[in-house]
Amino acid sequence: MKAEILEKSFGDRQVLGPISLTLERGEVLALTGPSGIGKSTLMRIIAGLDRNFSGAVAGTGKVAMVFQEPTLLPWRSVLDNILIAAGCTKQVAEHALERVELKERQQAFPRQLSLGQQRRVALARALAAKPDTLILDEAFASLDEATGNRMRAMVRKILNESEFQTILVTHSLSDAAELADRILLLDGTPASIRLDHSISQPAATRDLQETLADVRRVLQSGSK
Fold first, then answer.
1. What CATH number corresponds to the domain at position 212?
2. Centroid of chain to Cα 73
3. What distance lies between CA 62 and its chain's CA centroid?
4. Is 72 a member of any domain?
5. Given this model, what pLDDT does residue 60 score?
6. What's the CA angle centered on 175, arms 85 and 66, to 5 degrees?
7. In this structure, are residues 7 and 54 in contact, taking their beta carbons and an 8 Å threshold?
8. Closest CA to 134 of 61, 53, 45, 73
9. Fewest Cβ atoms closer than 10 Å to its Cβ: which of 40, 97, 113, 206?
10. Confidence of residue 206 (pLDDT cuts 50, 70, 90)
11. Is 219 helix (H, G, I), strand (E, B) or coil?
12. What's the pLDDT tens digit per position in 35-88?
């Protein structure tokens, strides 16, 4: 995937400046930055949900998104939520539920599930769509420690077994360091890429801990 964004504005307010981003198949990118910096705007552009910008995005293929809010249909069963949204066969839906350890709850309704389970259904829904690009937008937020740890381990296993390109939007540096191959930091007004650090390459220019310290300072101080 390659995104070459020149600018994105809402009315007279420019939100994104020049951003050049590439992502290889099988690669996991952690996208972080201060609240309100434009992370969600960038994700909507990459997902093809916002086409009102200057620039171009190519190579995303089929995109599936997992939001912080599970956005499940409350009047439909877990299985139906996947079948309707992903447009897949029952076999594919059940396999996706098995991957998130919820196959036995396929006839339950969302109100019968915990938040963590609902997030796992949303992840299964995305997997059932067989995406080329997976976007996880704060997928672990508001979960208790035990549930968050379980879901992170589950996501890590799924990502290790999969070939799609993944963007993980997060404020958690521990999630970024644990799950991603690269950390990308957005900052500034308008927002641009302040830092793009490879975690997977030991010979990277900057040490990971130094990078995380830089990112933490930006997140704590807000956009400059």
1. 3.40.50.300
2. 21
3. 14
4. no
5. 95
6. 10
7. yes
8. 61
9. 206
10. low
11. helix
12. 889 998 999 999 999 999 999 999 999 999 998 889 999 999 999 999 999 999
